[in-house]
Design a protein that fits this description.
Layout: H1 3-10, E1 15-19, E2 25-28, H2 30-36, H3 40-43, H4 56-68, E3 72-80, E4 86-96, E5 100-107, H5 110-155, H6 159-183, E6 192-194, H7 196-210, E7 215-220, E8 228-230, H8 232-249, E9 254-268, E10 271-283, H9 311-321, E11 325-331, E12 334-342
Parallel strand pairs: 7-9
Antiparallel strand pairs: 1-2, 1-5, 3-4, 4-5, 6-8, 9-10, 10-12, 11-12
Helix pairs in contact: 5-6, 5-9, 7-8, 8-9
Length: 348
């Protein structure tokens, strides 16, 4: 296939893979790298089995196309990637000269994804209103607590006892700052260039300090990622809330993976972005209970008796302010939260 064809395929939003007669990958476009979460450089000249754990249905489609020497469409193809993502696809297999095959993959859940994103926007707006109302109600008692702690500190003779009042004052100030941020218009957020791995390392150190025994946090970073424009403190809060929830669900015993990758040609809220940063937080805990999965981002919804149910609501709100999305996939033994953050303005 001439080089100009590759350039044409590179610009497609449809995932395309070209294989030779022994099903080794000759080419895959950026959309395929993004869909299947693989690197084209690592996959070239290797078997399709490096991408998928189950190739039986796909192999049958390819055999049909070769046998009939005509395009064959598999309307309900289910593939599981080595990243443990199960995909429902429509696949068109087209025979080419030199015993090659062109595979085109169309995700079947795209309309569902758009519907989820619209629902997320509506839910985020409703959650933001509720949080603002809560912030108004919390600010006044915080002021009283801080004032009482200051008065108590003046009456204490032992310096050691004043350490406790300082903790009360500092925590009240921290909570008040959080309430102020909830009440501040989005336009006042502080966006600047940042390294997403600095965000993850900060969260990693905080959570390991809270749970030093039994918890393992593994780094799986793509160190070639470019800088992201965003609010560092908000993004720390996003990742911290997710990681802390995972650690608490596992009662401090288990493994959490922090993974970063670049995603190409992604659509977020009906806007096309050439590049985005994908952050995944994966744990091997018990999974999210089925009855909570449809409302996990709602305010005051928690799977723990002592949970306040605001962590994921705040995370969703902060991600939305970065024009990104947050989704999850959960089953017993594996829960994966995926945060997508665009690296540039949407293309026209």
């Amino acid at each position: 296939m001439p080089d100009f064809s590759y350039l044409t395929l590179d610009s497609l939003s449809t995932a395309v893979i070209l294989v030779d007669g022994v099903l080794h990958v000759i080419y895959l476009n950026p959309a395929a790298e993004n869909l299947f979460e693989v690197s084209g450089k690592n996959l070239l000249e290797n078997s399709l089995q490096l991408v998928f754990t189950d190739t039986g249905q796909l192999a049958n489609a390819m055999q049909r196309a070769l046998h009939d020497n005509a395009s064959y469409i598999e309307h309900e193809l289910v593939l599981t990637t080595h990243a443990h993502n199960k995909l429902q696809l429509r696949c068109t297999v087209t025979p080419l000269p030199a015993n090659r095959l062109l595979l085109e993959f169309h995700p079947m859940d795209r309309p569902l994804k758009l519907a989820r994103e619209e629902q997320m926007l509506d839910q985020t707006q409703a959650s933001r209103l509720l949080l603002r109302n809560l912030a108004h109600e919390i600010k006044n008692p915080l002021g009283g607590i801080r004032g009482a702690a200051q008065l108590l500190e003046q009456e204490l003779d032992k310096p050691a006892l004043r350490e406790y009042t300082q903790v009360i004052i500092q925590e009240a100030d921290r909570l008040r700052a959080l309430m102020e941020k909830l009440l501040t218009p989005q336009s006042n957020t502080r966006h600047s260039a940042l390294n997403i791995h600095e965000v993850l390392e900060r969260v990693r150190s905080v959570v390991l300090a809270e749970m030093p025994e039994g918890l393992t946090i593994v780094r799986d970073y793509d160190i070639s990622l470019p800088a992201l424009i965003g609010d560092k403190e908000q993004l720390i809060q996003v990742v911290l809330n997710i990681v802390r929830n995972a650690a608490q669900a596992m009662q401090g015993e288990g493994k959490i993976v922090l993974r970063t990758r670049v995603a190409r040609q992604v659509t977020l809220f009906k806007q096309r972005h050439r590049l985005a940063i994908m952050v995944q937080i994966i744990d091997n805990g018990p999974g999210i209970p089925p009855e909570l999965r449809d409302k996990i981002f709602y305010p005051l919804v928690s799977g723990r008796a002592d949970g306040h149910g605001l962590g994921l609501t705040l995370a969703q709100d902060f991600v939305s302010q970065h024009s990104g999305t947050i989704e999850f996939d959960s089953e017993p033994g594996r829960t994966c939260f995926t945060v997508m953050l665009p690296l540039q303005a949407a293309s026209e």
